[in-house]
């Protein structure tokens, strides 16, 4: 008999096609991409389902799992991030979880490089000046920023995405790559096509990415990119103390999760010149209210969580999420499953 599934968003067509053609599920869909399913509606719709395909705007917590009831055996999220899932609760109930790493690595790395250059070379300010009459003449120090050549790039959380960013930045003549991580992860080397060398350094395509303490990372980085998952260990790790160690000429980039940053402390660091600029693809909350103080700062570039937003990648994420769901419902190994 068919498994019952709820899909919390009108996901890109490739995933829907897979579900429809599977002959395995009977699914209901929140048929909009413009607004998330209201919580009340979601709690109703999940009653008795076997599987749930969700996106990162849905909190999958005790309340939701209770509402779903004992049939629920698979959650498949169309995201690499999993901070919207109560992992402990899922584990205790024996519910399996699929997610979508790898397929979005290229898109996220490209966007991160774009955001980094946009922030460091002040492109948003520059286009604004050009079209609003600020372009009086060519000026010697007007709209100057910071260049990647000869710089030190710091990566907080060296996973697939962090490495993909480093690979793309290396041709800009970066002098040094450094990283820090919550724990050394030698097992990662194979996944990211790297060698794991002395002192926990990774060697990726000829260049060395050196492991340093967080203290050293903040002190030495000219560009610091957050590439870690949001967990209890990384929550608001970018706080007053963190920013106070960074160079006044440094650029902070976050394409991971807004929750790794204390935004009041970031505002303070940006408005007092403690750091030179910040590029954020993620905030707390999302959407960030248009009245938020960070929007008043010229040296802060804010994007609406679009790092994985290419047609190719979003369709690949949709397809992977659909396949994970179907495999999980058949009690087979998923293509990408979170180990709880
Ligand atoms: C996006 O932020 C994702 O987790 O896929
Ligand atoms: C982490 O989520 C990664 O793919 O780097």
From TrEMBL:
GO terms for molecular function: glyoxylate reductase (NADPH) activity; hydroxypyruvate reductase (NADH) activity; NAD binding. InterPro entries: D-isomer_2-hydroxyacid_DH, D-isomer_2_OHA_DH_cat_dom, D-isomer_DH_CS, D-isomer_DH_CS1, D-isomer_DH_NAD-bd, NAD(P)-bd_dom_sf. One of its GO terms (cellular component) is cytosol. Residues 113-307 form the D-isomer specific 2-hydroxyacid dehydrogenase NAD-binding domain. Keywords: Oxidoreductase. Residues 5-336 form the D-isomer specific 2-hydroxyacid dehydrogenase catalytic domain. Belongs to the D-isomer specific 2-hydroxyacid dehydrogenase family. PANTHER family: 2-HYDROXYACID DEHYDROGENASE-RELATED, GLYOXYLATE REDUCTASE_HYDROXYPYRUVATE REDUCTASE B. This is Glyoxylate reductase/hydroxypyruvate reductase. It comes from Menidia menidia. The lineage of its organism: Eukaryota, Metazoa, Chordata, Craniata, Vertebrata.
């Amino acid at each position: 008999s068919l498994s019952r599934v709820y899909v919390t968003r009108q996901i890109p067509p490739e995933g829907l096609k897979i579900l429809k053609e599977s002959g395995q599920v009977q699914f209901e869909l929140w048929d909009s991409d413009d607004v998330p399913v209201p919580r009340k509606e979601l709690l109703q719709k999940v009653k008795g389902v076997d599987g749930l395909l969700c996106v990162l705007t849905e909190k999958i917590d005790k309340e939701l799992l209770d509402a779903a009831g004992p049939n629920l055996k698979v959650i498949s999220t169309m995201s690499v991030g999993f901070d919207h899932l109560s992992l402990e609760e899922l584990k205790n109930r024996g519910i399996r979880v699929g997610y979508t790493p790898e397929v979005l690595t290229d898109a996220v790395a490209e966007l991160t490089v774009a955001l980094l250059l946009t922030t460091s070379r002040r492109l948003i300010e520059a286009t604004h000046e050009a079209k609003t009459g600020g372009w009086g003449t060519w000026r010697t120090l007007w709209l100057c920023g910071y260049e990647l050549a000869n710089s030190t790039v710091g990566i907080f959380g060296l996973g697939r995405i962090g490495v993909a960013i480093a690979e793309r930045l290396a041709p800009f003549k970066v002098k040094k790559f450094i990283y820090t991580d919550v724990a050394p992860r030698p097992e990662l080397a194979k996944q990211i096509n790297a060698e794991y060398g002395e002192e926990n350094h990774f060697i990726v395509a000829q260049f060395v990415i050196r492991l340093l303490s967080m203290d050293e990372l903040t002190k030495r980085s000219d560009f610091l990119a957050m590439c870690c998952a949001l967990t209890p260990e990384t929550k608001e790790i970018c706080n007053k103390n963190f920013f106070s160690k960074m160079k006044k000429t440094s650029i902070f980039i976050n394409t991971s999760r807004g929750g790794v940053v204390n935004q009041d402390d970031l505002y303070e660091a940006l408005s007092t010149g403690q750091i030179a600029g910040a590029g954020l693809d993620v905030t707390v909350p999302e959407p960030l209210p248009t009245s938020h103080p960070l929007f008043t700062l010229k040296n802060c570039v804010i994007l609406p969580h679009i790092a994985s937003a290419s047609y190719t990648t979003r369709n690949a994420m949709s397809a992977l999420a659909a396949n994970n769901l179907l495999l999980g419902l058949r009690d087979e190994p998923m293509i990408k499953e979170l180990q709880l």
